Amino acid sequence: MKIGIVGGTGDIGEGIAMRLSPNHDVVIGSREEDKAESSCNACIGVMSGLGIRCRLSGHSNQEAIDRSDIVILAIPFRHLAPTMSSLSGFEGKIVVSPINPMEKKEFFIYTPPAEGSAALLVKKMLPEGTRVCSAFNTVAANKWKAFSEALDLAVPVCGDDATAKSAVMQLVGSIPGVKPYDAGPLAVSSMVECLTPLMLNIARYNKMKDVGIQFR
Ligand SMILES: NC(=O)c1ccc[n+]([C@@H]2O[C@H](COP(=O)([O-])OP(=O)(O)OC[C@H]3O[C@@H](n4cnc5c(N)ncnc54)[C@H](OP(=O)(O)O)[C@@H]3O)[C@@H](O)[C@H]2O)c1
Question: Which of 35, 94, 135, 195 has a CA that sits 20 to 30 A from residue 26's CA?
């Protein structure tokens, strides 16, 4: 599978890129090609220091889409609309949203758009027939980057197209220590997206680090 990460230079983008790149061709995308190349070189440096071979490259966000089968939108919710309107070529791809719309006020709150969730908004913004899934929403970037720890993670995956969802679940499951769970159709994404502000509130009010979810 060829994976393109729009906004791949960010926290979650780099983390996922490093975890996927031993088994997949991964393109880190950016608005600035130089930034993508630096991010890619930094990730390769970390991986080679650990003796792990990876297949990573850095390009523009558009190249990341054009070169991939699965596109992960690793950008903050507030930049989603302008980013999507500046990019094209999503037809025939599987598009994955890890995006959690939320704000920090007195506590963290889930702030979904009128469509009901970021994932449903992504679907609305894309050409009809583009297959959209949500995944990677509930795992903090520092977990993906913590190579000294063995992972034991649960990742809910939502989507309306069975083939696309199965491909995304296989992608998630290709990371050792990570178990994908079929969470249902894309309409369920709101329930997944709101778990992150909940976990951040639990971490804050209970003075905990690394709050995560498991399904048992
Ligand atoms: N961080 C986490 O632990 C975590 C966990 C689960 C899910 N998520 C979700 O994953 C998404 C990315 O989170 P993140 O923490 O990785 O975000 P981030 O580091 O703040 O930003 C990711 C990337 O977005 C791009 N970006 C910044 N400003 C932009 C703009 N004005 N227009 C277009 N692109 C812009 C940047 O890439 P370039 O400058 O290279 O273009 C940046 O590297 C969010 O929606 C978040 O809810 C995050």
Answer: 195
Tokens linked to 215: 């399904």
pLDDT score for 205: 98
Q: What is the mean pLDDT of residues 148-153?
A: 92
Q: Which of the four pLDDT bands, split at 50, 70 and 90, describes residue 106?
A: very high
Give the helix ranges, DSSP H, for 79-207.
80-86, 118-125, 141-145, 162-173, 189-193, 195-205
Helices (H), 139-194: 141-145, 162-173, 189-193
Indicate whether residue 103 lines ligand 1 (CB < 6 A).
Answer: no
**Could you identify the atom of ligand 1 that is nearest to the CA of residue 12?**
16
What is the average pLDDT value for the chain, to the nearest integer?
A: 97
Hey, what domains does the chain have and what are their CATH numbers?
2-205 (3.40.50.720)
Residue nearest to atom 37 of ligand 1 (CA): 7
